[in-house]
Specification:
By secondary structure, this protein is α+β, with helices and mostly antiparallel strands. The chain has two helices and five strands, in the order αβββαββ. A hairpin with a 4-residue loop joins strand 2 and strand 3. The longest helix is centred in the first third of the chain and has 36 residues.
């Protein structure tokens, strides 16, 4: 059997590699574009302060395992006076300081969480 006939791996790679490269570059550009679009949208929104209650908290952990790094994202859901619920990504410190049932003033701009000032319980 001659090497010029049949399955040629190198000629297939000449086709697959550029397609794979373009696909990965497209995904990266899409993620960057989407992030810039959300950042711009948030900057155009007014900063709002509304009365709200913390109704739930959750985390999302990815990665991890033996000798591997893990990442944790923290989310808090607030319910405002109108009954609407909004979920925001918060940092670990904010997540730890908030408890379900906390009432106070939620500060946000578009989808960007700015802070939560808890009301002191009346004794």
């Amino acid at each position: 059997m001659d090497f010029d006939q049949g399955f040629d791996l190198f000629s297939i790679m000449e086709i697959i590699f550029p397609i794979f490269f373009i696909l990965v570059a497209g995904i990266i550009l899409f993620v960057i574009f989407r992030g810039i679009k959300e950042w711009s949208y948030n900057n155009q929104q007014p900063r709002l302060n509304v009365e709200a209650v913390v109704v739930s908290k959750r985390t999302n952990v990815s990665g991890g395992g033996p000798d591997h790094h893990s990442s944790t994202w923290y989310y808090v859901t607030f319910q405002v006076e109108s009954g609407d619920r909004m979920e925001f990504t918060v940092n670990g410190r904010e997540y730890g300081q908030l408890a379900e049932g906390d009432a106070g003033e939620l500060q946000f701009q578009g989808t960007r969480y700015l802070g939560f000032v808890r009301q002191q319980a009346q004794i």
